Amino acid sequence: MGVVVAIDGPSGAGKSSAAKAIAHRAGWNYLDTGALYRAVTWLALENNCDEPFSILQIVKDNPIRFVADPTAPQVFAGDVQITQYIRGHSVTDNVSRISAMPEIRKLLLIIQHQIIDSSERGIVVEGRDIGTVVAPDAGLKVFLTADLDARARRREEEIEDKSVDVKASLGTRDSIDSTRAHSPLVKANDAVVIDSTNLDLEETIERMWELLKQRNLLGLPIVAILGRPNVGKSTLINRFLGRREAIVEDVPGVTRDRIKYECEWGGRRFIIMDTGGWEAKPDGISVQVSAGSELAMADADVLAFVVDAQVGALDEDDILVQHLRKAKKPTILIGNKVDGEREEAEAHSLWSLGLGEPRFVSALHGRGSGDLLDHIVAVLPEVGRAQNQDGYRKVALIGRPNVGKSSLFNAIAGESLSIVDDAAGTTRDPVDSLLDFGGSVWRFIDTAGLKKRAHQDSGTDYYASLRTSTALERCEVAVVVLDASEPITEQDLRVITMVEEAGKAMVIVMNKWDLVDEDRRIALDREIDRHLDQVEWAQRVNIAAKTGWHRDRLAPALRTALDSWERRVPTAKLNSFLGALIGATPPPVRGGKQPKVYYATQAGIAPPKFVVFSSGWIEASYRRFIERRLREEFKFPGTPVQVAIRVKERDNQ
Per the database record, which ranges form the EngA-type G domain (predicted)? Predict the structure, then answer.
């Protein structure tokens, strides 16, 4: 089973259109669970059945089948294609009643799980209980909504019968769906709310796509490194990785297995697949190695064919070229061991292979490796085949030693078993823990205490600091643990600064609260005012980890911080706010001129990034003023907000 995207929400919010578009763009399957309930309703109406037992028998005699193609989804009852029939008024008027029957929901839940489990790369599922019941472990959960008037207008444009009171019908449906006893329409705890009232379909789709990219759910592209034995494939991979990972030995055939490494270049992450040397007429173990190379061609998104440019193309290279052409995938011809201009001139004979322009590189010395990586990144697909992301939100517990991180971890774990997980594709810090906490499963990233002047330390302390930095890099939200019973230290502030500069969501836990007396509480308030005023946006939770006191308050704080971290402000609202702000408080005069602010845009999320375009440079104090007012207007608790100024010359035309 691949990635699962769950989209819930009321009728008319745009679920079906957005879900089909996302599934088509990603090359995934699509499931409209509402169509399944409509199919059952159609069968019940066609056979004049009202009792659950009778309806179940009819469904047994006419099995419901869903074709999960986002470009042409179809519904069958037995051998009858009923895709159009289930959209009639009689089905619409009765589907909520039939859907409320527990027996019907139980049967369709089984069918939905079968469809989801059979999707190899990914599936987008939309309905009313997907994130809460059908796919509670979905990689991304979206609650797509819009106000009743907007939804009614959209539905009125879709139907031909203008006599129907669409608004009243939607209102009734909302009430039934939200109040039914079994699997009501509710937002999942960890779902992202998208209000499409003021968004068109394209904007709604882009918002979801942005979340998929940010959470690395689109899958990493796989680049297979192929070629004959001893042409330097593993050396080239080590050059790409910047470290010695692939085994290199001056003996042909050292690499026998397909091994995957995660690589990053130019802001793009992808998987490099090392393969054994391919031989046209293999014998012995070489048979398996060559077969592995052919499997790699099938698994990969991009094929990189490495040739020893000093030897040139051999007859068996021509045979491999034929296989590459049959694969019909982007293929890059790499001439390795080109150490200088003389070798490069001689290597141009590789054009004869018919794979286009050869890319020359010296894997051993690094010549041309940057240009080659640029070219690889340029041909990577938007969605890759390496679907190894699980969608769990990633949390790091960080702080200086002895503040109670381990105690807090144990308090979060509670009675539930912590699961050690070898995170697929992660070579930097392989051991994480999955914890069921506050109604959701979270991925807690292993960390170690951060010590003062860590760069000067050696041995264990140094590596502990390195692991903490790595955990911060990998996490989405950092829980900074402070010892509330002791004064806030310089090390504590350094940890907080690290989180802010890394652009991560943040929750500050004041641990050991059971040791805080009245005098310490007064002193702590003064320390917070003095030291934490720059991060007053951070969520703060008081906890006694050893006793578990108030541990239940941490999960809501984590969700609030993550919600803010991924929040996008509609452009129209942003510029309306900015216009009013500039009108009331214009930017200060600089060099005798007052810069004119044109407009602003949100450049990204995680964390929210805003760019303000103006005619001249704006003082840092005014930028902080904009950030402060942005927070007041749109609320971003728990996340840093980045505001940049971009000077733009006015177009004179």
Answer: 221-384, 393-566
